[in-house]
Specification:
Elements lengths: L1 H12 L10 E6 L2 E6 L2 E6 L2 E7 L6 E5 L2 E6 L2 E6 L5 E5 L5 E6 L5 E5 L4 E6 L2 E6 L4 E6 L5 E5 L2 E5 L5 E4 L16 E4 L5 E4 L4 E4 L10 E5 L6 E6 L4 E6 L2 E6 L10 E4 L7 E2 L2 H4 L12 E5 L2 E5 L4 E4 L14
Length: 323
């Protein structure tokens, strides 16, 4: 009997892949800039990162609401004051929270490992909206949808809590290459990138059904995607373990399932140099862990520094520009 229980436990653990990268995220609140990691929150003061909070439980994700930092942890949601870094409250304390997002109305949503998807109904109250499968990630888009990545596919939840499910076995128009949706990245246009173990799919804003462009990997099969950003200039930035890649939006129309977003020999993407990224001197070998676009600037974080540069562009000549 004990052997059977161990087998079941290992099977459940196998639903959640181990990421090579610890959590990190760039956050903004008014004119202030923050970097959150698995263990702490830092504020950017004239190029220097000052720690303002140590987390009592490692963070899987973090967002800001009402001058509080909300962290997703295996002990629920723990909030911290941005003023003094002290813990303020603990919510959903009996759940393992994997991800947080804010919808178009400013409400917080949370995904949990085995207890579904929850939505904030009052400031300190959450209601279960979806109970399907193991929840890896939630990601809201400005069009009012909240997208949930699970081991049963992608759920796009409407404001009235009805949803569309995209899955490997779904009917025509709602298919995905894989049911395991591990990461989701959205942008100001409501485009959605869907990351699966061996596939990457792109759902264009407003396209709720139909074939999605999909790819096998970015850079190499072992590469990990940390974030995908829309430059607003007909290109996407891929923040990855193998570097930062600038990918022309037009390339999406020509890709197909099993293709590669980035290929060293014949690439539609540009790998950006440390000079182009404005990496601080003495930190050129440090990996970029995350990025964000805010007020027409590209912000980058490497675990030591947080800085802003001009958003790179791809001009008609095909040569890289940093203007």
């Amino acid at each position: 009997m004990r052997k059977a229980l161990i087998s079941i436990s290992l099977a459940l653990l196998g639903l959640f892949p181990v990421s090579a990268q610890s959590f990190s995220k760039i956050l903004f609140n008014g004119k202030k800039e923050y970097a959150a990691t698995e263990q702490a929150l830092f504020i950017n003061k004239k190029g220097k990162l000052d720690k303002i909070a140590d987390f009592g439980s490692p963070a899987n994700d973090a967002i800001i609401q009402d001058n509080l930092l909300w962290t997703a942890t295996e002990r629920g949601i723990i909030t911290y004051s941005l003023a003094d870094g002290k813990a303020v409250s603990q919510l959903l304390s009996d759940l393992d929270v994997t991800s947080l997002t804010k919808d178009s109305n400013g409400k917080i949503w949370a995904s949990t490992k085995f207890s579904g998807i929850y939505k904030q109904s009052e400031k300190n109250d959450f209601t279960q909206v979806l109970s399907a499968g193991a929840g890896y990630v939630v990601c809201a888009t400005p069009d009012g949808l909240v997208n949930a990545g699970t081991n049963l596919g992608l759920y796009s939840i409407r404001p009235d809590n009805t949803f569309i499910r995209y899955a490997e076995e779904a009917h025509s128009g709602y298919g995905l290459p894989d049911n395991y949706v591990e990461k989701l990245f959205s942008d100001h246009q409501s485009n959605l990138w869907i990351i699966m173990p061996d596939n990457i799919a792109f759902r264009k804003s407003g396209q709720m059904m139909g074939e999605m462009p999909s790819f096998a990997f970015v850079g190499s099969k072992e590469n990990e995607i940390y974030n995908i950003l829309n430059t607003g200039r007909s290109a996407f930035l891929f923040i990855t373990r193998e570097g930062v890649l600038l990918f022309p939006e037009a390339s999406l129309a020509h890709e197909h399932q099993g293709g590669e977003v980035f290929n060293q020999e014949n690439s539609p993407a540009f790998r950006l140099s440390a000079d182009k990224l404005g990496t601080p001197k003495g930190e050129r070998t440090a990996s970029i862990l995350n990025g964000a676009i805010h007020k027409n600037k590209l912000y980058l974080f490497n675990g030591t520094s947080l800085w802003a540069v001009n958003i790179p562009e791809i001009p008609k000549s095909g040569k890289l520009s940093g203007k």
